[in-house]
């Protein structure tokens, strides 16, 4: 027989410390550890919001390319035209029409942001940050090979330039490839003679 819940039993149940569902540990002990990371030096601008629906003309097209029958026979590709500017965006990123609608709207918002803000748009700032990282990596690579060339020059007693050091690396690579090809040829000819016996 079940007894009805009274205020006293409800308050007693609420007064108990919450526990982790499977192990009986307090909930605080079950929470994952948190780590703090350093904030980025330059805050990225927020993602732009898509324009209002009244400014858009949307049509659905049959897709093309990989994806099979789902892409080729259904109108899942989305084409959006921004009426005030005349910008047309087509999205066929997924096989889902709703996902393609979201992607097309975000691409249109980014394109309008570029048009309105130019160098201060989110895509320009993100692209600049990526280019800066790429340039830094290339500079680090150049420094590394320059240092290797200098060490090689000291070891041989000659001065070599970076270009000469790269040529040496290429020649060594070609020589290693030739040796490997010769070994393969020898092993194949060895297998053929064994097969003939």
From TrEMBL:
Principal location: mitochondrion
Skewed-composition ranges (Pro residues): 43-53
Signal peptide region: none
InterPro entries per record: Mito_Transl_Release_Factor (IPR052405), Pep_chain_release_fac_I (IPR000352), Pep_chain_release_fac_I_sf (IPR045853)
A cellular component term, taken from the record's GO annotations: mitochondrion
Gene Ontology biological process: mitochondrial translation
Keywords for the protein's UniProt record, in alphabetical order: Mitochondrion, Transit peptide
Region (Disordered): 37-77, 126-197
Compositional bias ranges of the Polar residues kind: 186-197
Domain Prokaryotic-type class I peptide chain release factors: 52-147
Gene Ontology molecular-function annotations: translation release factor activity
Pfam families with a match to the protein in the record: RF-1 (PF00472)
Biased composition (Basic residues): 129-146
Subcellular localization: Mitochondrion
Family: Belongs to the prokaryotic/mitochondrial release factor family.
Protein name per UniProt: Prokaryotic-type class I peptide chain release factors domain-containing protein
Taxon lineage: Eukaryota, Fungi, Dikarya, Ascomycota, Pezizomycotina
